[in-house]
Amino acid sequence: MKIVPDTSAVIDGRVSERVDDGTYDGADVLVPEAVVGELESQANDGRDTGWEGLSELQRLAELADGGVIDLQYVGRRPSAGETKGAHEGDIDALIRDIAAERSATLLTSDVVQAEVAKAKGLRVEFVEAEVRGSGGLIIEQFFDDQTMSVHLKTDTKPKAKRGAIGEMHYQTIGEEPTDETTMKEWADDIVNSARSSPDGFIELSEPGMDIVQFRDYRIAVARPPFADGIEITAVRPIVKTNLDDYEFADELRDRLAERQRGVLISGSPGAGKSTFAQAVAEFLNDNDYAVKTMEKPRDLQVGPDITQYTALGGDMAKTADSLLLVRPDYTIYDEVRKTEDFSVFSDMRLAGVGMVGVVHATRAIDALQRLVGRVELGMIPQVVDTVVYIEDGEVHTVYDVSTEVKVPEGLFAEDLARPVIQIRDFETGRPQYEIYTFNRQVVTVPLGEEKDDKESGVSRLAKQEIEREIRSIARGHVEVDLKGQNRAVVYVEEDDISYVIGKGGGRISDVEDRLGIDIDVRTHDEKPSTSGQHAGATSGGQSGASGSTGGQAGEGAVVTPEVTSRHVVIRMDGHVGETVEVRADDQYLFTATVSRGGDIQVSRGSAIAEELENAIDRKQQISVVPA
């Protein structure tokens, strides 16, 4: 009797089992090298199935040594490509070919393998696959009604997060550390139960990490070498809510049901974002909207009418393409984190799908700012028009997001009008923030702050921009004193007064026109608070390529820059690889790293080069100090 076992039969130990019960006594067992190669690959990936299969081969070798069976290894070893394509049937095809060539019976626990072999006219013995795992969840013993998550790791005491939402405490729940044998048993049981039970599935399986969804538990099982020990983290929702349980429930219902919207649900980890997202999904579904979800992993607890999608082929962009064909009214995206996530979210919203995204953020405005730089500024209100911030399981803040062409708050010149994103408090309708471009920068300016807080919002921004503009033309020290949102006093050296003002006031008028602020130019001696003590001081703003400030007078080495047709070059022989600050009369210009050639090269035409050349033209002392 000739038997050719495939990989599934070897892993399940079906050959030695049949030898033990006498069925295969004296049989010729022909093990394909393809089976050995696949088992070796699985064992190298840290998969238990590979090690179990290799243990079965060792048992067969012992039976052969005892004369109970005749064991032979036949066929060729599979190529790397065939091993990688095992899930597509490449290894199974090699095994079937051997069974056909040797006129042997194919032993398998793989139903697809069995059916294909029968179709090819082979003799097949099919045995049910071994049921692995308990079919339940052993670690469920650690959960009670107030347990949100359980954290287990080799050689540590079991811990859990317990309490009401907003009052969670990370606490030890076991007296004895969990040994490696127990951790391996629990980890194997979780993964195997998820594979075999209709209550679970494997969301993600990579060498060293499995993500399992089992009933309402999301479980991450990490193993070496990915982790430094076996670790199991099991999470479940401890409360299920509906929209009526939250503040602004009526207003939010009306807003969501009015039309498809772009909504960001933000908050810190554990604040209750996903719980609120589930409530929104159920509300929309109950109000005749077709709702789908995009999750990786899928752990939102929603009703059966809401289909939950994960990353198709590991790519949410492919999931989005599929969903656009399904054309849902609303999609819940849990969670939006990486740049590609924001891109997918934006594309679907601009295609007309209502989108609700879950975002980690410590403030409501931070969720919206994560779109800046990822989405064109003017498109942000079309992508997101509502931001809901969750704190301690409650709706803490709701923002309405819109756009308007206007002069930004705090500026007054009509020619400074531009598209401004306005963020208003949903409850009061009062503006809270404005986002717009100012002097080629995207800025977020808080509104409604205390009158005496001169360093906040647009005032702080204006002060920095005024100082930068004046420093680019003044030869000495510059200080700025704001006298309101549309007026400032600039203090410069006496020798710089005429230079900053320019002929007929033309130079300072240009600066005023660019910034939309009236500027009064005075000498340092006219500033009451300093009274001549300005020498060597640094101002409140920043300049150049870094935020570093100037140092003490006399520091560093004095250098003579060389101006070529394309670069301004500063020779720094003996300082290769060092990071240094370049200064003019002890005022900071920029930070640079000395090249391998022993110099610093600044491309002419850049803002830094212009400042450096202006300093050279004014015969200022150029020095270099360690950064």
From TrEMBL:
Domain of life: Archaea
RNA-binding is among the record's keywords: yes
Database matches in PROSITE patterns: KH_TYPE_1 (PS50084)
Keyword set includes Cytoplasm: no
CDD domains to which the protein is assigned, alphabetical: PIN_VapC_VirB11L-ATPase-like
A Pfam entry, by short name: T2SSE
Keywords: RNA-binding
Domain AAA+ ATPase: 259-394
All residue ranges annotated as the PIN domain in the record: 1-115
Bias kind Gly residues: ranges: 538-554
UniProt similarity note: In the N-terminal section; belongs to the PINc/VapC protein family.
Record protein name field: ATPase
Native organism: Haloferax mucosum ATCC BAA-1512
Higher taxonomy: Archaea, Methanobacteriati, Methanobacteriota, Stenosarchaea group, Halobacteria
